[in-house]
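Retro notes
What went well: the complex prediction finally ran end to end.
Inputs used:
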Amino acid sequence: MPKVLIVDDEADVVRLLQFRFEKEGFETITAMDGTTAVAMVESDSPDLVLLDIMMPLMDGMEVLRQIRSRRRTSKTPVIMLTAKTASITVDEARQLWVSDYIMKPFDPEILVRKAKKALKIPTD
Amino acid sequence: MRDLHWELSTLYEIGRMLSASPEINDLAQTVVEAAVNLATADASWLALHDKQRKVFFYGASHNLPADIARELINVLEDRLAGDSTGSFVPIILTDIAEHEGLRNLAEKTSLKAAVVVPIVYKDSPAGVLAVFWNRSGRILSERMEPVFLLANQAGAAIENARLLEEARQRSAALVAISKVAQTIGASTDMRWALNVVMDEANRLLGTDLSSIRLIDTNTGDLAIRASRGFSKQTLKRIRLKVGQGVPGWVAEHGQPLIVNDCRHEPRLDYYPCDAEQISSMVSVPLLLEGRTIGVLTVARSEPKWFTEEDQNLLLILAGQAAVAIENTRLYDQAKRRLSEQKILYRLAQELASTPDVPSVLKFIVTHITQSFGAKFGSLRMLDEAGDYLMIGAIWGITDEYTKLANENVQMALAPDTPTGQSPAALAIRNKRICAVNNIFKDRRFTAWREMARMDGYTSVVAVPLIPADAPIGVLSLYFRDVRKLQPSESELLQTAARTSAIALQRAMLDERLLKEEVTRRALEEISHLKTEFVSLVSHELRTPLTSIQGYVKLMVAGHSGELNEIQCEFLNTVSRNTDRLIALVNDLLDISRIQSGKLDLVLEPLDLRELFERELESLKAIADERGITIVTDVEPSIPMVRADIHRLGQIISNLVSNALKYSPESTTIKLAAYPVDKNVLIKVIDAGMGIAPEERGKLFQMFYRGENDAIKHIRGTGLGLAITKHLVEMHGGKIWVESEKGHGSTFSFTIPIAPPGP
C-alpha cells in the first residue's frame, strides 16, 4: 500500500486530496507547512509527495531542495502542485528529480493518474 | 670831449634800458620811447623781422595813432624787403609828405622829417627803427646819432630777447604738450579732453578762437565737436563738409594750412562777416594712423601772423586730440562691450539656474526690457501649430496688456489677419528682428498707432526667439520715445534673444521630461500594482477554485456516494461553469501579463513527444466524453524545440481544446509535427465545420467570437486564440489557419528548433 505525503497550506485542498487518494487505496499523511513536510519526509519515508509550491515561510521549491539533499530521500517521487505558470522550469524539475507537476486548479482524477504513473502503478 | 662823454653816457643809458627789458614786446616799447628821448624826436616806430618767414612785422610805436602805426608796416614793406637783401642803409627823409606812402601820415599828423634806420645783428636784419620830427628840413646830426647808436645796440638786445622768447615758448609748448598728454591719457571724457587741447592751443599760440571738427565718414559732414570763443549763433552758421572752407580743405588733403590774411582768403567765403572777427588762422588735420579723422583750427582777431612753428605745435596738439578721440572711442567701445557682456552674462547665468518655464519667461522679458531701457516688454510664445502667439510673460506693461495676458488672448499670425501685420508677427514670419523707429511715421503699422498712443510708446522692436531654426516665440520691446537701435545694440539684442531662446527651449524640454518622468513613474507604479494584483489573483482565485473544482469532480466521479440523475446534472453544470471560470481567470491573467509586458518566457530545449503526451492526457477526458479521437503524428527523430514548457503546452492545449469544441462527435483530431528548415511545424487538424474566409482574419483578434449561429452556443472568452498567437510570436514563430467551410480547419504554427546543446 503506497504511502503519499500531501503538503499544502490550504486545509480544503489537503482534505480533498486525502479523501481522493485514500479512496484510491493510498495511505495518506499530511503536512501544512514546509518545515513539517521536510521532517515528515525524513521520519515517515512516504512513497510519493504531493507538494504545493506557494506556501508561506518555506515554499515548495525549498522543501524539494531539502528533500533532495538527504541521501535517503534523494529519489522519492514528488509531484508539484503549482498555481502559477513558469514557477518551475524543466531544467529545475530535471535537476531536482520532479516526477511531474499539475497546475491548480486541477481535476483530481488527472492528479491520480499522474500519481500512479509516477509510482509505476498501471492505470485501467 | 663833450661828444665822447655824451656818447658814453648815452650808450650807458641805452644799455641800462635795454637790459631791463628782456621781453621782446617790452624791449620794442623801450626802444621807441628811448629813441624819442635821445633824439629829441616827436614820434617813433619799430618793426621786427621774422627770421623764418623773412618778413617784417609791427613791433611798437610811440606817439603815433594805433591805426597809422599798423598801416606803416604795409607802406614800408617794399622798401624794407628790398633793403634787407644786402645793404642796410639808413634813409633820411626831410619831408615825408614827398613820399607817396607816407602822405597819409603827414596829413594826419604834424610830422615832417624822419630817419629810418635798419637794426642789424651779425649782418642780418633784426628790425627797423623809424624816428619822426615835427620840423622839416635837415636833421641835426646830434639828433640822428643817438638813433644810430640805439639801432646798433638794439640789434643784440632784440636778438637776445627773441632767443629768450623762443626758449620760453619752446618750454611752454613742452609743458603744454606734456600736460595735454597727461590729461588725455587719464581721460575718458572726449569733450573735456578736446577742451583741454583747445585751451592749451589758445594759450600757446595766443589765439582766442578754436574749434575741433570731426569727419562723419557716412555723411561727409565736418561737425564741430568742441569749440572755444565762437558764439552759438556762429557755430550754427559755419556748418561745413569735407572740401568746404579752410577746415574742409585740410580735411580733404590731410595737410595743415596757415591763412595769415583772412580778408583775401577765398576759402573763407563761407565765414559770416558779422561773426567773430578773424584776421589769421591755422588749421591742422587730426591724424590717426595716417588717416584724417578731423581738423583742429585756431584763429585770432588781431593781425598777427602764424609761423611754421605755431603750425607744428598745433599739429602736435592735434595728434593729442586724435589720441583723445581714439581713446574715448576705445573706452566707449570697451565700456559698451563690458555692459553687453554683463547683460549676456547675467542672462546666461540666471537662465542656467532658473528651473521652470514661467520663471524663465519672466526673467527674459524683465532683464532684456530693463537692459535696453524700454518702457515695457512682452514675450509671446508660438503655439504648437505655429498659428497663434500667446502672452508668455510681460514686464512694465500697461493695464491693457495685463488684461490681454490674463485672458490669455491668442494673436493670430496669418498675414491676412490684423494681428498678422504686427511687428511681432513680422519678426516671427521673417525670422528676423523687426525694428520700428517711429510707429506714427511707419506706413506698415498704421493700424497700430491707436494702440501705441494708448500704451504710450513710439518705437517698438520685435526680435524672434529662435533656438535652432524654428522660432518658438517673440520678444517685443516698447520704447516711450523714438529709439533707433545702433547696429551693436541690435546685435546685442539678437544675441540675448538667441541665448534666451536656447534657455527657454531647454526649460520647456526639462518641463516636458519632468512631466514624462512623472507619467513614467505613475505608469511604473500602476504596472507594479498590476503585477501584484495578477500575482494575488492568480493565487487567491485559484486556491478556492482548486477546492471547488476538486470537490465537485469528486462528487461527479461518485467518490462521495451514488448520485441521482438530477444531482449528477446539477453538479456537472457546477463543474462546467467552474471550468469556464478557471479558463476565464487564466485567460485574463495572461492578457494582463501580455499587456503589461510581464509575460516572461523561460526558453529551454523541449521534447515535443513528451509535451504532446502530457497535454493530451489533460484533454483525454473531454475527448472521450465527446467520442473524439486525438491522434498524434510525430517522428521519434523530431528535433527538440526551444520553448517555454508551460507556454508551449498552453498553445497546444488551446488549439486542441478549440478543435474539440468545434468538432462534431466521433471525429478525429490530428496533432502533427514536422521539422521545416530551422523550425518545427505543428499542425492541429480537425474535421469540424470550418471557418469562413472573412472570419479567418479576425480569428486571432482579442474578444473575437465566431459569428456563426451554429457555434453561438459554444462558450469561450474570445481570448484564447489572441493569447495563443501572442505566445507563438513570443517564441519567434508564426501561426495561421487554413480552412474550408464544412471541411474542417487546420491551425499551423512554427516553433524554432533548439540549437544543438552541449
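What we learned: Residues 358 and 751 of chain B are 56 Å apart (CA to CA).
What to try next: split runs per interface for comparison.
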